[in-house]
Amino acid sequence: MDPPEAQPFVGPTLSVGLTYSWQNLCAQVPLARKSALGSCWSRRSSSPTLSDPGANEALNWPWRESGKVVLDHVSGIVEQGDVCAILGASGAGKSTLLNALTMRNVDALEISGERYCNAELVTPESLTAQSAYVQQDDMFIGTLTVREHLQFQARVRMDRQFNAKERMARVKEVIQHFGLDNCADVLIGVQGRIKGISGGESKRLALASEVLTNPLLMFCDEPTSGLDSYMAQNVVETLKNMAGEGKTVIITIHQPSSQVFEMFNKVLLLANGRVAFHGSRENAEGFFRSMNMIVPQYFNPADFYVQKLAMVAGKREESEAQIQQICDTFQSSTWGSQLSDKLDKNASPDASASQPSTRVAISKYKVSWWQQFSALMTRTYLATIKEPLIAKVKIMSTLVVSLVLGFIYYGQKHDQAGIMNINGAIFIIITNLSFENIFAVIMVFCNELPIFLREHANGMYRTDVYLICKQLVETPVFIITTTITVVILYWMTGMNPDPIRFLGALGIALLLTQVIVSFGYMISCIVPNAQVGNDISPVLILPFMLVGGFFLNNLSIPTWLIWLKYISWFKYANECLVINQWSGVE
């Protein structure tokens, strides 16, 4: 089946073409904290020219001594209608370059250089407004269908001038454009838990999510990763069709097939963080032929170029010498000089006067606070009611555990043994609510956090909107599970039968649950994943539990640990529930 043909865009389109260029991008992994001499120089006047192959060695760059160099004065340009592939061996700096171009995921690096859109210096906000970034790892809310996911994306990412009808029409159009009709109402799925769409459909969905806003500039990090040759060709052909509509496409790709390589009209070859070649696909073959490196007949040109630029095991010195020769030759070649001229023209102050500005960012967010809230509230509700870990497993496990504990503490009397057992049951309620809710929050929130970070970086919604919606949707679930625990244990144990005291105990338990859920959110934001969160949660909870007033008398707490009891929810909840139970009882 041939890839679907491009469809016209619904509503007004952006007719301004976009040329994206970058000059002297440097990136390094610092060995220590950044010092005054440990950063890349970002002034253009201080940087070596592209046509001077020995400039990097002639100048004793101070930033070389403070860390590992990943990008070494990389320059390039991609124009409207281009599909530019960034190629290179492993460790060449492909992903780092793409991150530097998109100004994302670079917290661990020191980066300098200049980036231009139509001869104007770009900022993260202006770039986000006119570009889309398809990252290598697909991140979706797996309990949503393909259509529900795209509808949410349309509600928060399309500009404010579009009404609800136009947004839904755009969703329908994009579904048809990417051939997602057959799976439009299928759950996206969660690997290992919920069966969903295939890998190829997932990649197309990631592209569809970004195309909704009709961006001028597309960045794709390994869009064919994990796909078979047919699906990889299908995805790249989709990108080529988008470039044919006037967009600018920049992608990193690993080992493209010869058919896929033929779809690129521009290539950028990286080796050891330097530019080995940048220009048209046809000129790449001519450049390597000029160095007596001829692509063999019936040989994939992409594989040939990468082999010539790779570090061969056991031949490090020879490989480094060959890479340096290729990079230096390109900088002094006709192709390197033409690139330098284009870059100077695109980055000159006069160029901006001849080209209309494409900087459209006024706010990071495309829609208002209320529109963000409405869209996110709908998605969070759909995701929550379909999530089996919340809607089914959590409620059923709470019911079973509460019944087991209820039978253990069943029918206590107000004698000495009964009083001790009732106090024990009170503390068991607190402990059960603590562990049960913290683990539930970590299991769900840790998996959603990377999605939130990516979507927030894309300017889709604010942090406060996300947390408010999550709290409003999940609070009823926590109310239900807390009520089940308190009702079963309170009456089966034989606690104070006064209805007012029961309501008081329930109210205290509900307030306690909110504290516990917030603590779970805090742990989820600190740990890298749910597994680590579940491992360290008991370690963090145990000290609070020990100073809670049940296992250890307050007067026996060591002086250097006395401060713990004042931030322990076990202490305050235990005191409140004990007073509620025994106050006025003879």
Explain this structure.
One of its GO terms (molecular function) is ABC-type transporter activity. By secondary structure, this protein is of the alpha/beta class. The chain folds into three domains: 20-136 and 222-354, Rossmann fold (3-Layer(aba) Sandwich); 138-215, no CATH class; 369-582, no CATH class. Helices cover 52% and strands 11% of the residues. It has helices at residues 55-58, 94-102, 124-130, 146-157, 164-177, 199-211, 229-244, 258-261, 281-290, 301-308, 316-332, 334-347, 351-354, 369-386, 388-391, 393-408, 416-457, 463-493, 499-526, 530-546, 569-582, and strands at 20-30, 67-78, 83-88, 110-117, 120-121, 131-134, 217-221, 248-252, 266-271, 274-280. The strands form two sheets. The protein has a six-stranded mixed sheet, with helices on both faces. Strands 2-1-4-5 form a four-stranded antiparallel sheet, with helices on both faces. A hairpin with a 2-residue loop joins strand 9 and strand 10. The longest helix is centred in the last third of the chain and has 42 residues, at 416-457. The N and C termini lie far apart (82 Å). Residues 1-16, 33-65 and 350-361 have low confidence and may be disordered.
Compute the average pLDDT.
Answer: 83
Question: End-to-end span in angstroms?
Answer: 82 Å
Judging from the principal axes of the Cα atoms, what is the shape?
Answer: elongated
Please state the CA-atom Rg, rounded to the nearest Å. 30 Å
CATH domain fold name of the largest domain? Rossmann fold
Strand content: 5-15%
Q: Helix segment count? A: 21
CATH superfamily of the largest domain: P-loop containing nucleotide triphosphate hydrolases
Q: What's the level 1 CATH class of the largest domain?
A: Alpha Beta
| Sheet with most strands: strand arrangement | 6-7-8-3-9-10
The main β sheet shows up as: 6 strands, mixed
GO molecular function: ABC-type transporter activity; ATP binding; ATP hydrolysis activity
Family: Belongs to the ABC transporter superfamily. ABCG family. Eye pigment precursor importer (TC 3.A.1.204) subfamily.
Domain ABC transporter: 50-297
Transmembrane segments: 389-410, 422-445, 465-490, 502-524, 536-563
